[in-house]
Design a protein that fits this description.
By secondary structure, the chain is an alpha/beta fold. It folds into two domains: about 375 residues, TIM Barrel (Alpha-Beta Barrel); about 300 residues, TIM Barrel, CATH 3.20.20.210. Helix content is about 45%, strand content about 10%. It has 27 helices and 22 strands. A seven-stranded parallel beta sheet has the order 1-5-7-8-9-10-11. A six-stranded parallel beta sheet has the order 12-17-19-20-21-22. Helix 22 packs parallel to helix 23. The protein starts with 17 loop residues before the first helix and ends with a helix. The relative contact order is 0.08. Bound molecules: glutamine and zinc ion (ZN). Glutamine (GLN) binds next to loops. Glutamine binds next to loops.
Length: about 750
C-alpha cells in the first residue's frame, strides 16, 4: 500500500530570493524579458527537481507566478480589466506587470491580504458584462516543462467560486454570482485542455470554503462542479486555512475525485469526513503545517493517520496543510542560529522530507523510518524540556496576575482630567504617529553599527543627533505632543524582537508578501521576557530636550505576535500575554523616567481576526486583554495612546473601545472620514485622532483639505475628545514634505481652536 504525497504549492521566490532579483533587475531594465523568463523557468525546474529528489509523488504546476497566482487565475480565464485596454488572448509580459504594478494611465489592480496570511493578492475586477475565455497556453507550457523533467505534474488552479468571490464588483451594482455561468464555461475549457494534454489530476483551490459562506455561494458549488468534472482531469478540491466540517455532507457528494483538508488548523474536522468517506474519492490529509516553521511530531502523526490509512488504503494522500508559499525555504541554510533551535525547525525543504518520511512510515512501518522518528522524537523532547523555551519566572508572573489586572484604576473621564491637569494641552491637540523620515544618513549609521563598523557610542551619538533634530523641528512647527522619531528602528517588530528573550532571527527566512517583496518574520520560540529597557534612553534623551511632553513609542503585543512565526506548543493567546508583560516592564520604566504619554501601536489587531465569525469574539477578548495588560498598573495621569492604520473597523468598534486607550489615532483621510461616522454612531467613549492627511503619498495636503476633514470630524466627535494628527508614521517620507504638511496641519488646528473659543 502506498499513499501518494503531493504539495499544494511551493515557495516561488527561491532559496536566495532569486525571483526577487530577477524581477527587480528586469523592472530596472537591467535584464531583458527573455532572460527574466529563462531565469523563472530555471527556478521552477530547480524546485521541481528538489521535490522529485525528496520523493514527492505529485508536483504542483501553475503555483509558480511571476507576480501573483490570483492575477494568473484571472488571466487563465481571460478576465483582464477593460480599463487597461489589453487583449487577453495576446497579453505580453510587459502588460502583465502593468496590471500588477500600474502604468502611466492606470493604477495597478488593488492589493489585499490573502485570507489570514501576510501574502497580498491582486484583486480581480468584475463588471456586470465581464466576459471569460479560457487562455490555457501558459499553463500548458508549464505542464510540458514539468513533464520534460519526468515529473508527475498536477496543475494547480484557483477554483472558480473562490476566484469569483475574491474579486470586487465594479461599476453598476450586480450580483457577482451572475458571472458564474460564463466563468464555469471558461474553466470547463481550461480543464478540457489539461485533460487533452494527458493530465491525470488537477487541483482546484477553494479556500473560501473556510469562511462563513453565504448560502447562495455554498449552493453554487455542486452545480458548478457537476458541469466541470465530466470534461476535466480527476479533480482534487483543496480547502485550507480552516475547517469545512459544516460542508462535509455535500462535499463528500461532490462530483470530484478527491478532497484536501487542512488537518493542522482544523484536525477535528476529520470526524465529520472520515465516517462513510466515499469509496470513489481520495482524501488528501494536510498534516504538515504549511503556515509555521516547526518540525512535525512524526510519531504522533503516524499514530493519528494509521486508522485513516487502514480505512482508505491508497486513497489516503499526504500533504502539507496548505501551499508552502507561506513558509521560508530552507532551514539548513541558517548558519547563525544555535544548533539546538535550528534542529527544531522545518522550512519548506524540511517539510518535503517530513512528508516523505510519513509516507514511508505508513507504507512500511515504523521500523523503516526508525532513525527519522528518533530524530523527530529527540527534537520534540528537547524542545519540551529546554530551558531555552521555558522560563518559570514568566509562567509564575502570569499565574500571579491579580484578577482584573488589565483594568485601569479609574474610568476614562477621571483619568482624562488627571492627565489634562499636568499636560495642560490646548483643545484639539496636535501630534504625530511616531516615526520621522528615515534619511539615508540614518540608514547608513544603522547599517554600519550592525556590521560592527560603527562603535556603540558613535551610533548612540548619531541617533541622539537625529532625535535632537526631530525635537527641534517639532518645536518649530508648534506640535503639542512630541515624539523622538524612531530613527533607531528599521522594522518595528524586529526592533523589539531583537531585545526580547524568546525571539530568534533567521538570515534567510524570507516569505513572499507580494510581487518581489518579502518579509522575514522573527521566530518566537521561548517564553518572552524583557531583559533590559528597550526604548527608555532614547525617550528620556528626547524629553530632556523639550519642555513639551514627549510620547514614548512601543509596538503592541498583538502586532508583535501577528508579524512573527509563533511557537506551536502554547496557545497564541498565552504567548501574547507574555509579550504584553514584557512590554509592561517597558511601559513602567518609561513612566518612571518621566515619559507619561505612551503610545502602544496595534496596527495588526484587525488582521489577526479569525476567518470564521464564530471565533472572532474569543480572539478579540484575548487580544484586548493583552493590549490592556501591556499598560497595566500605570498611573491614572499617564496617558496611553494607541494607533491603528487601516480604515475598516466599523465591525470591531466595541473591541477597539474595550482597549480603553486614552487616545486612539487612526487612518481616515483616504476614506474621507467615512470611518468617523461609525465612531460617532457607536459613541466611541475616549479621545480620538483621525488622520487628517494620507502619508502614503509625497503630496502635501492643503489647509483647505485638512480643514474640511476636521470639520467633518467635529460633527461626530466632541471637540474636547478630538486630536489632530497624520494618518500614520512618516518614516517613508522626506523632511521637506513632512514639514510642509505638518505646518499646514498645525495652522488649521490653531485656526479651529480660535473658532471654538469664539463659539464657546
Ligand atoms: N509608530 C509607528 C510609526 O510611526 C507606527 C507604525 C504603524 O502603524 N505601522 O512608524
Ligand atoms: Zn499606522
Amino acid at each position: 500500500m502506498s499513499h501518494r504525497t503531493h504539495l499544494l504549492g511551493f515557495p516561488r521566490i527561491g532559496a536566495k530570493r532569486e525571483l526577487k532579483a530577477l524581477l527587480e533587475s528586469h523592472w530596472k531594465h537591467e535584464l531583458d524579458e527573455a532572460a527574466l523568463l529563462q531565469g523563472a523557468k530555471a527556478l521552477r525546474q530547480k524546485h521541481w527537481l528538489l521535490q522529485k529528489g525528496a520523493g514527492v509523488a505529485l508536483s504542483p504546476v501553475g503555483d509558480f507566478s511571476l507576480y501573483d497566482h490570483v492575477l494568473d487565475a484571472q488571466l487563465l480565464v481571460g478576465a483582464v480589466p477593460p480599463r487597461f485596454g489589453f487583449d487577453a488572448a495576446a497579453l505580453t509580459t510587459a502588460q502583465y506587470f502593468e496590471l500588477a504594478r500600474g502604468n502611466r494611465d492606470q493604477p495597478a489592480l488593488e492589493m489585499t491580504k490573502w485570507f489570514d496570511t501576510n501574502y497580498h493578492y491582486l484583486v480581480p475586477e468584475w463588471q456586470a458584462d465581464t466576459a471569460f475565455a479560457a487562455q490555457p497556453q501558459r499553463l500548458l507550457a508549464q505542464v510540458r516543462e514539468a513533464r520534460a523533467l519526468g515529473m508527475a505534474a498536477k496543475p494547480v488552479l484557483l477554483g472558480p467560486l473562490s476566484l469569483l468571490w475574491l474579486g470586487k464588483a465594479k461599476g453598476a451594482a450586480f450580483d457577482k454570482l451572475a458571472l458564474l455561468p460564463g466563468l464555469i464555461a471558461a474553466y470547463r475549457e481550461l480543464l478540457a485542455a489539461l485533460r487533452a494534454e494527458g493530465v491525470e489530476w488537477t487541483q482546484l483551490d477553494e479556500p473560501i470554503l473556510a469562511l462563513d459562506l453565504a448560502p447562495a455561494w455554498r449552493d453554487a458549488f455542486a452545480p458548478a462542479y457537476a458541469e466541470l468534472s465530466p470534461h476535466a482531469p480527476k479533480l482534487l478540491l483543496a480547502t485550507y486555512f480552516g475547517g469545512v466540517a459544516e460542508h462535509a455532507a455535500w462535499l463528500k457528494a461532490l462530483p470530484v475525485a478527491g478532497l484536501h483538508l487542512d488537518l493542522v488548523r482544523a484536525p477535528e474536522q476529520l470526524d465529520a469526513f472520515a465516517p462513510g468517506y466515499p469509496a470513489d474519492k481520495v482524501l488528501s490529509a494536510g498534516v504538515i503545517d504549511g503556515r509555521n516553521i516547526w518540525r512535525a511530531d512524526l510519531s504522533a502523526l503516524l499514530q493519528r493517520l494509521a486508522p485513516l490509512a487502514e480505512q482508505l488504503g491508497d486513497r489516503l494522500w499526504l500533504a502539507p496543510s496548505c501551499s508552502l508559499l507561506h513558509c521560508p525555504f530552507d532551514a539548513a541554510a541558517e548558519t547563525a542560529l544555535d544548533a539546538e533551535l535550528k534542529n527544531w525547525l522545518a522550512f519548506a525543504v524540511q517539510k518535503l522530507n517530513e512528508l516523505n518520511t510519513l509516507q514511508r512510515g505508513l507504507a512500511q512501518g515504523r521500523a523503516a523510518i526508525a532513525s527519522e522518528l528518533a530524530g523527530s522524537d529527540f527534537a520534540r523532547e528537547q524542545r519540551r524540556a529546554s530551558p531555552r523555551s521555558h522560563d518559570p519566572a514568566v509562567a509564575r508572573r502570569l499565574a500571579e496576575l491579580p484578577e482584573h489586572a488589565d483594568r485601569r484604576a479609574s474610568a476614562y473621564p477621571i483619568r482624562a482630567e488627571k492627565q489634562q491637569a499636568w499636560l495642560k494641552l490646548p483643545p484639539l491637540p496636535t501630534t504625530t504617529i511616531g516615526s520621522f523620515p528615515q534619511t539615508p544618513a540614518i540608514r547608513a549609521s544603522r547599517a554600519a553599527f550592525k556590521k560592527g563598523e560603527l562603535a556603540a557610542a558613535d551610533y548612540q551619538a548619531a541617533m541622539e543627533q537625529e532625535i535632537e533634530l526631530a525635537i527641534r523641528r517639532q518645536e518649530a512647527l508648534g506640535l503639542d505632543v512630541l515624539v523622538h522619531g524612531e530613527a533607531e528602528r528599521n522594522d518595528m517588530v524586529e526592533y523589539f524582537g531583537e531585545q526580547l528573550a524568546g525571539f530568534a532571527f533567521t538570515q534567510g527566512g524570507w516569505v513572499q508578501s507580494y510581487g518581489s517583496r518579502c518579509v522575514k518574520p522573527p521566530l518566537i520560540y521561548g517564553d518572552v521576557s524583557r531583559p533590559a529597557a528597550m526604548t527608555v534612553s532614547w525617550a528620556r534623551y528626547a524629553q530632556s530636550l523639550s519642555a513639551k511632553p514627549v510620547k514614548g513609542m512601543l509596538t503592541g503585543p498583538v502586532t508583535i505576535l501577528q508579524w512573527s512565526f509563533v511557537r506551536d506548543d502554547l496557545p497564541r493567546s498565552e504567548v501574547c500575554r507574555q509579550i504584553a508583560l514584557a512590554l509592561n516592564d517597558e511601559v513602567r520604566d518609561l513612566e518612571a523616567a518621566g515619559i507619561r504619554v505612551i503610545q502602544i501601536d496595534e496596527p495588526a489587531i484587525r488582521e489577526g481576526l479569525p476567518l470564521k465569525r464564530g471565533q472572532r469574539d474569543g480572539y478579540l477578548a484575548w487580544a484586548g486583554e493583552a493590549f490592556r495588560l501591556s499598560s497595566h498598573g500605570v498611573d491614572d495621569a499617564t496617558q496611553i495612546h494607541t494607533h491603528m492604520c487601516y480604515s475598516e473597523f466599523g465591525d470591531i468598534l466595541p473591541a477597539i473601545a474595550a482597549l480603553d486607550a486614552d487616545v486612539i489615532t487612526i487612518e481616515t483621510s483616504r476614506s474621507d472620514m467615512a470611518l468617523l461616522a461609525d465612531f460617532g454612531r457607536f459613541h466611541y467613549p475616549n479621545a480620538i485622532g483621525p488622520g487628517v492627511y494620507d502619508i502614503h503619498s509625497p503630496r502635501v495636503p492643503t489647509a483647505q483639505e485638512i480643514r474640511a476633514l476636521l470639520r467633518k470630524a467635529l460633527q461626530v466627535i466632541p471637540a474636547e475628545r478630538l486630536w489632530i494628527n497624520p494618518d500614520c508614521g512618516l518614516k517613508t517620507r522626506g523632511w521637506p514634505e513632512v514639514e510642509a504638511a505638518l505646518a499646514a496641519m498645525v495652522a488649521v488646528g490653531r485656526e479651529l481652536r480660535q473658532t471654538l473659543a469664539h463659539t464657546a
